[in-house]
Each structure stands twice: as structure tokens, then as C-alpha cells.
Amino acid sequence: MITILEGKERNLFKHHPWVFSGAMDASTVPEAAGVEKVVSHDGRFIAWGWYDKDSHIPLRLLSWKEDDMPDSSWWERSVRESVLRRKSFFSDMSSSTNVFRIIHGEADLLPGLVADVYGRIVRMIVSARVAWDMRETVVRAIEGLLHPQMIILNTDSAFCAIEKLHEVVEYYQGGVRFTPAEKLPEMRIREDGLYYGLVPGTGQKSGFYCDQRENRKRLEQYVKDAVVFDGCCYTGGFTLHALRGGCRKVDAFDSSADAIHRLLSNVHLNVDLGILPSSSLEKVTANKADIFETLRSIPHNAYDVMILDPPKLAQTIKSLESAKKAYKDLNRLAMEKIRSGGILMTCSCSGSLKREDFRTVLAWSAKDAGVEVQILETLGQGMDHPVRISFPESEYLKAYILRVIK
Ligand code: SAH
């Protein structure tokens, strides 16, 4: 049983799931990793948690019901409930979209664990020791529910050092671990009726950024006859929507050569399938380039619509101040360069940058660029990436559609 120090329990009673060492009475902390009852200094039950001294978050709270101890059947039930919350995505799967998230970490009450469906394949990413310890239970639960062709599990390289985990990829078929004899073949996924090629287990994130699904749809409403700039385009999520929305031209930029190649092959794929008109091939340019240099070098007034979807610039709270400056510069440059009346879709996926702070950064960008800015739409992450109200950190993707007036 772990006792929380007086004054440190308030957020935990409000279901915040993370406890750092400074909040625990050290004399009550166990040596071995495992499930622990967590109580306040005056002995009131707070929650059941998982303690592991080797984790950078040593105590992670799981269940706030005293009669519901998180054993392996708790994990199986939590996985099942999380998957069933995505029922509407499964019923839509045969038509427009077959890539979506079924477990979104703490926001689905499953710390350090995300899982995405890619057609008949499930990708799991583990970023905490507790999820690593419980992975076979989770695999069994997903297998029993979905019978996927394969489950691919990786540890998240960004967390391996701080969680003392190895960088590992595991493959499961029928719930049993195996080693694929050869490289996995390329597959096609579908989002909102558009197709993307990818090789399971490769690429950034779990292979595709499905958190931007709704925002791509929104963008499509603004691009008719527009000249579009897609900054940090990855494999073309926004570019394909711009082409389908009838843009005049789209210039896409990314620092990754692989992403650029993939974007071009995705345009070809959708043209070949008759989803995009063949004129799309002449409308798109894909460029390997740094976004900051690109924004400095493009001419003024060349673009009607600009998209800024940079990688997580604030990796940690510590880098927040320098990241804010980078977000400010990026957005200032875009506001300076865009045509008057142009549409700027701007995003931040840094969990440590709060929405209000991102908005303040954008206000500074507007001031420094000497422009007026209107917010047309306030957007976030798709509903398969829910935000848990007791865990503000789960609201990581913020996006705005802005009009820039000069
Ligand atoms: N908009 C994309 C997702 C973007 S993810 C989509 O809809 O799928 C962020 C992208 O930024 C990644 O593809 C990464 O390769 C790219 N990137 C990272 N640093 C960059 C830089 N300095 N300049 C340009 N692109 C960068």
C-alpha cells in the first residue's frame, strides 16, 4: 500500500493518473513492480495503481473503484471496452475509412499503450513499462475481439531511454508471437475514401497520422481553385484532400525523402484508381526541404491556402519555451507570405503546449507579421483520440483554420 503525502492527493482524487516520487511517502514504496493500493495520508482509498521504480512515472493509477482491482481480467475488459467504444468506426470500415485508433493510452484508461487498426492489421505502440508487462494480455484481448491478420507491437523509441525499455518489434499471429520470414508486403489503407500505400511496421508514428482525419476533411472545403502550400506534408494526407477539393496547384514540402516519394506514389495510386482526376499529377510538386528555410525562400503572395503541420516541436516541458518561439516564427512567416484573405491551417501536436498558449503564440505571430487574423474554425484530434477531462495532457493536437487579412 502506497501513501500519498498530504496536499499531493487532490489531482489524484480527480482521476489524474500520474504520480511522481515527490508525492509518495517513501517509507511505503515497495521494491518490486506491481499493483498497489494507493491511499491518502489519512488512510482514504484513492485508487489502484501500478508501481514500478524504473518508470519515469513510477506510479500510474488505473482503477478508482476499490472493488475493481486491476488484474489481468481488468486489462482484458478495459481493452474490450476501449475497442467497443469505436463501434461506429468498425461499421464504416468497409466503405470510407479503415485506419483508426482503438486504444488511446491514458485517455482510454490504459497507460502507455496505443493501438491502431490498419485494415486487417493492428499496430500497438508501448511507451510505459506497465504496458510492456501487460502486453501479452492486451494482445490476447485484441486477438479475441478482432481476429486480425497480424498484430505488430513496437516499443516507442522516444520513451525507451526514460522507461528503461529496449527498442523492440514483435509480431503476433493468432495471438502467438512469430518472426516473419520476409519483409512484409505493402498494403493499402483507406481514409475518407482516399488510398495510401504503406508497409506495416515502417514509417513515422504507427505509419499514418490518423489523428488529422477530420481536419483534412475540413481543409477540403477551402481549396477550390486555390494555390496550396502543404508544409510538413508526410505522405500527403492534406495534399490528397486539396487535390480532391479542386485546388489549382499544391506544393508539398517535407524533410523526409521517403515521405516525399510516398506522397507522389499516393497521388498516382488515387489517379490510377480513378479517385483523383488525372490532372492531379500536373498540379502537385513534392519537395524535400526544411520548413523554416522554405518559408523564408518562397515568394510573397504565391499561396491562397497554407498548411503548417510540423512535428512535435516541444518534446518535453523543458523545451516548451524554445518550441513556442519556433511555432511563432513558422506562423509569422506563413502570415507574411500568404495572399491577403488567404487561409492558414495551422497545427501543433505538442502535448505540453496548451491550447490557450498556442493561441497566444498565434496572436504574437500576427502582431509581428503586421496582419489581422480571424479564427474560422477551432479543431483538435479525431474522436478516436479522445481527450480525458481528468488528464489535460491527452489534448495534444490543436489546429486552427485562420483567415489572414492584410
Ligand atoms: N501533415 C502530415 C503529417 C505531418 S507529421 C499528414 O497529414 O500526414 C510531421 C512531418 O514533418 C513529418 O513527415 C516529418 O518528416 C516532417 N518534418 C520534420 N521536421 C521537418 C522540417 N524541419 N522541415 C520539414 N519537414 C519536417
Describe the protein.
With 406 residues, the protein is of the alpha/beta class. It has three domains: 2-63, PUA domain (Archaeosine Trna-guanine Transglycosylase, Chain: A, domain 4, Roll), CATH 2.30.130; 73-178, RNA methyltransferase domain (HRMD) like (Transcription Regulator spoIIAA, 2-Layer Sandwich), CATH 3.30.750; 209-405, Rossmann fold (3-Layer(aba) Sandwich). The chain contains 13 helices and 20 strands. The protein has helices at 10-13, 72-84, 87-92, 129-133, 135-146, 157-163, 213-220, 237-244, 257-272, 280-283, 291-297, 320-337, 355-369; strands at 2-3, 18-19, 34-39, 45-51, 59-63, 99-104, 113-118, 121-126, 150-155, 169-173, 176-178, 187-191, 194-198, 227-231, 249-254, 284-288, 305-308, 342-348, 372-379, 398-405. Strands 16-15-14-17-18-20-19 form a seven-stranded mixed sheet, sandwiched between helices. β12 (187-191) and β13 form a beta hairpin. The longest helix has 18 residues, at 320-337. The chain is globular, with a radius of gyration of 23 Å. The chain binds S-adenosyl-L-homocysteine. S-adenosyl-L-homocysteine binds next to α8 and β15.
